[in-house]
Amino acid sequence: MVNKDWESRVAYLGPEASFTHLAAGTVFAGEWLMPYATIPECIEAVANGEVEFAVVPLENALEGSVPLTIDYLFHDVELHVSAEILSPIEQHFMVHPQQVENWQDIEMVYSHPHALAQCHKYLYYRFRGVPLEQTTSTAAAAKYVAENPSRTIAAIGNEFAAKKYGLTIVEPNIHDFHFNHTRFFVLQKKNIKLDKKGHDNSPKTTLMIKLPVDDRSGALHQVLSVFSWRQLNLSKIESRPLKTGLGNYFFIMDVLDDEQSVMMQGAKEELRALGCEVKSLGTYFTYKKE
Ligand SMILES: O=C(O)C(=O)C[C@]1(C(=O)O)C=C[C@@H](O)C=C1
């Protein structure tokens, strides 16, 4: 349980009305939400004690992982996941009200790289050849378009960003696939599950595993059998480069159990006995944004 005698400071990938801001609001309504410009700045803010929590994007159903978040958590900081938030994502095409007449002749489209990728087909068929400009978030794109009313430019983002920055949505729901969801991590220094109203009551643990250095054949198979014979269900496995040489990876695994269970304790012990390095990000519950 989190002690809630004080108001928590919560960093999020801003500015206001980013998808991360909306996700953070579902779990931290009424708390002190503080926008930061980039994912590393959010993570550093919690690591050096400026804030108690940080909310950052981790994975999108269409585009896959946000490598910056995963790599930062593995290489740069010792933090824990205290919750995950799943949020539906709807991308809209928006312009400054002064440019509504010209929106078909847009000269540049601004958004976060994940959002641009989620709308790749739409942009290809509708605005082929129009330059795409990456921003630190969809809300940053909306803010930029709002600050440049004389330019024939557009942003891709959510309806709250359109409202917040006074833009007009000229084409709603332009994401290429209907099932567009993003998973966000709530990070904290302490290894404590966030136990607020509205979670799913199913603990999940994220482990980051480095295989033994001897590079023996079957090492990954051995790791997987540690979970398999204990009937520990994995909901995700992914590899990321260790950044030490080609072919060197670590694995991120999400296990559907509490780190404190007998089976999980045994699994971690056995992994270490096999020569693996195991970094646990802790156990957390899932919160869903409607
Ligand atoms: O740009 C935003 O609004 C964000 O919160 C970032 C982010 C991401 O990193 O994937 C979050 C959700 C959407 O998938 C698009 C962008």
Automatic annotation (TrEMBL):
SUPFAM superfamilies xref list: ACT-like, Periplasmic binding protein-like II
Site note Essential for prephenate dehydratase activity, residues: 182
This protein's record includes keyword Lyase: yes
A UniProt-annotated Pfam family: PDT
Enzyme superclass (EC): lyase
E.C. code: 4.2.1.51
PROSITE patterns from the UniProt entry: ACT (PS51671), PREPHENATE_DEHYDR_2 (PS00858), PREPHENATE_DEHYDR_3 (PS51171)
Annotated metabolic or biological route of this protein: Amino-acid biosynthesis; L-phenylalanine biosynthesis; phenylpyruvate from prephenate: step 1/1
Catalytic activity: prephenate + H(+) = 3-phenylpyruvate + CO2 + H2O
Keyword Transmembrane helix tagged: no
An MF annotation (GO) of this entry: prephenate dehydratase activity
InterPro entries, A to Z: ACT-like_dom_sf (IPR045865), ACT_dom (IPR002912), Chor_mutase/pphenate_deHydtase (IPR008242), Preph_deHydtase (IPR001086), Preph_deHydtase_CS (IPR018528)
Keywords: Amino-acid biosynthesis, Aromatic amino acid biosynthesis, Lyase, Phenylalanine biosynthesis
Prephenate dehydratase domain span: 9-189
Entry's Gene Ontology BP terms: L-phenylalanine biosynthetic process
Domain ACT: 208-285
One CC-aspect GO term: cytoplasm
PANTHER family with a match to the protein in the record: PREPHENATE DEHYDRATASE P PROTEIN, PREPHENATE DEHYDRATASE-RELATED
Protein name as annotated: Prephenate dehydratase
Organism: Paenisporosarcina quisquiliarum
